[in-house]
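Reopening: structure tokens for the fe (ii) ion complex, inputs below.
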Amino acid sequence: MGVIKILMDAVLVRCPFLYALHSLLEALLVGQLPRWAVVGGERRAHMDRVSALLNDWAIRMDLPELERRRWRAAGLVHDLLRDSEPSKLRETLPSALVEVPSTILHGPAVAERLRSEGVDDGELLIAVAQHSLGDARFGRLGRALYAADFLEPGRAFLPEWRAELRERMPGDFDAVVAEVTEARIRNLIERGSKVSPQTIDFWYVMVGEAA
Ligand SMILES: [Fe+2]
Ligand SMILES: [Fe+2]
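Re-run output (same inputs, fresh job):
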């Protein structure tokens, strides 16, 4: 592992272009939001906390530098249209997305924007598009973003329980993601809200992988 890391670092020094994210994502990492972002101060602080949590997990998982920056960028990008008027978002979206409920429209809307600007990282696009519902197709990044969005320390509910789950990450990764998914499903049921079959499918996958 040590030799591989030394080799990768050497390649990075000689060929930094091999290790760059899309320019829009690199700009986000240095605090520059795209012109189409619609986020207030509180939302931006939430995205910063999600990004910091993802960065912390990526470091503790010893992920390579590029992957770590990719995880940070996912946290910074996922809610960039959360404060936009859903009716305005619908005007610019493909017809397939027009029926998506208002509360979860921002994820697919950000993914569409990224795609239209040339971001072709499929795993990141699914992670961002489906961060509200969860998705059985999620790779490690999607699962991490889904959990970090719920576990970031700025949220007020169940602080001690969520701190415990944060402590168990990333070592107990799939079990924590399964518990987060279950908690979100339970919360929806208690509020009398509809639970998407997509979320149930994701939960089944995570329970199976955590076993
Ligand atoms: Fe969101
Ligand atoms: Fe969020």
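The domain at 21-210 is CATH 1.10.3210.10 (Hypothetical protein af1432). The CA atoms of residues 45 and 154 lie 9 Å apart. Marking as resolved unless the reporter disagrees.
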